[in-house]
Structure formats: structure tokens, C-alpha cells
Amino acid sequence: EIEKEWLLRTFKVSRIEIRNGITLVNFLKLLKLELEISNTA
After folding, report:
1. How far is CA 37 from CA 1, 18, 20, in A?
2. Superkingdom, according to UniProt (predicted)?
3. Residue 4 to residues 10, 19, 37: CA-CA distances in angstroms?
4. Cβ 14 vs Cβ 30: under 8 Å
5. Which residues, 6 or more positions from 30, have their beta carbon under 8 angstroms from its beta carbon?
6. 3-class SS of residue 41
7. Alpha-carbon gap, residue 6 to 20, rounded angstroms
8. Residue 23 sits in which domain range?
9. How many domains does the chain have?
10. Residues 28, 25: Cα–Cα separation, whole Å
């Protein structure tokens, strides 16, 4: 449940950031980094 909410929140935020001009490549790098952090936590 918590992970689903986290993913939804992350994608909502990232959609806004993409609209604000962050490239898809940078977004994917950030997402990969966040997934690595959440896996080690």
C-alpha cells in the first residue's frame, strides 16, 4: 500500500517536472536513483 502511494506521488511530481522542462533522460536517472535508495533503505 505505502509503496503504491509512493510510486503514484513520484510519478505525479515527475510529470509536473517534465512539463517544467526536465528531460526524460534526467527523469529516468532520478527515478533509478530513487529506486536504488529505496531498495537499500
Report:
1. 19, 21, 24
2. Eukaryota
3. 10, 23, 16
4. yes
5. 14
6. coil
7. 21
8. 2-40
9. 1
10. 5
